[in-house]
Amino acid sequence: MNILDQIVAHKQKEVAERKSLYPVKLLEKSIYFESQPVSLKKYLLRPDKVGIIAEFKRKSPSKGMINPYVAVERTSVGYMQAGASALSILTDTAFFGGKNEDLITARKFNFCPILRKDFTIDEYQIIEAKSIGADAILLIAAILSPEQIRSLAAVAKSLKMEVLLEVHDQQELERSLTPDVDALGVNNRNLKDFTVDINLSKTLAPIIPDDFVKVSESGISEAETVADLATYGYKGFLMGETFMKNSRPEKACAAFIDRLRVLI
Ligand SMILES: O=C(O)c1ccccc1NCC(=O)[C@H](O)[C@H](O)COP(=O)(O)O
After folding, report:
1. Annotated active-site residue in 123, 128, 162, 166
2. Nearest C-alpha to atom 10 of ligand 1 is from which residue?
3. How far is residue 182's CA from residue 204's CA, in Å, rounded to a whole number?
4. Is Lyase among this UniProt entry's keywords (predicted)?
5. pLDDT tens digits, one per residue of 180-227
């Protein structure tokens, strides 16, 4: 089993358990069902921002432990003060060391789009994402059929949430597009063998229809790379490890954005 298969197998069990512990009726009592989400798409298109989606990620299958010590309050507020456009909060515990409470905390301290970064395979998880204050969810084409993508994206839309659809190749892109998707993420990291190839974002850019905001994900460590990808039409740049490997991720984010502003 590759890592994605392992994550999905674990997620199926986790979702079944959570459904019985926290039924949908209970989740729907959350105050976030009454509030208007913040649009990720709009924030990525804002001319005063540089499109960084700054990620809070303690560990990952490819890198192991990255940073178990920093607090989500200080890091998330610092990311936004640094000039990030949005937050990506990992909520998967088993493989990424995250938790729903991280997103709940980030939500309390920030008014900005928050992407719930998890492995969504069931509509229950979208209702859960809404209940903890997320504005957008991630759908990964590699673990979902085109029908699942369409129906999960429609559920997100019915809850007024936005969808970032992640693809890794042309086939995934062509079979997965649906109008309920808002942003199209090209993951430069092959999630089966963890190799990173930034050129993948450049290769796929011309075949991403203009209706979708283009996001380049993973393996970005240089401001020059972002400036280069921007010339291919990318408006969003999902970055985790480059910031999180520092004792003060928000300071690394601020320094990165300062460098970027000189280039674009
Ligand atoms: O990062 C991993 O090891 C990984 C393994 C399996 C599935 C997903 C994985 N990562 C999720 C991501 O897509 C990244 O956290 C995100 O794009 C940020 O990447 P980076 O800037 O390289 O931390």
Report:
1. 166
2. 60
3. 17
4. yes
5. 999 999 999 998 889 999 999 999 999 999 999 999 999 999 999 999
Give the strand pairing for 59-60 and 114-117: unpaired
Domain boundaries 3-263, corresponding CATH code = 3.20.20.70
* Residue 83, SS3 per DSSP: coil
- Contacts with 13 (C-beta within 8 Å, 6 or more apart), sequence order: none
Region for residue 194 given its phi and psi (left: phi exceeds 0; alpha: psi -120 to 50; beta: otherwise)? left
Catalytic, 214? Answer no
Q: Domain segments of the chain: what residues?
A: 3-263
Atom of ligand 1 nearest to the CA of 66: 23
CA distances for 133 relative to 35, 82, 125, 218, 254, angstroms: 9, 22, 12, 24, 25
Catalytic status, residue 218 = yes
160 belongs to the catalytic site: no
ipTM of the complex: 0.98
Q: Which amino acid is at 63?
A: K
Q: Which residue ranges have their beta carbon within 6 Å of ligand 1? A: 3, 55, 57, 60-62, 187, 189, 191, 194, 217-220, 238-242
- Helix (H), strand (E) at residue 87: strand 86-90
Point out the catalytic residue in the list 85, 88, 100, 117: 117
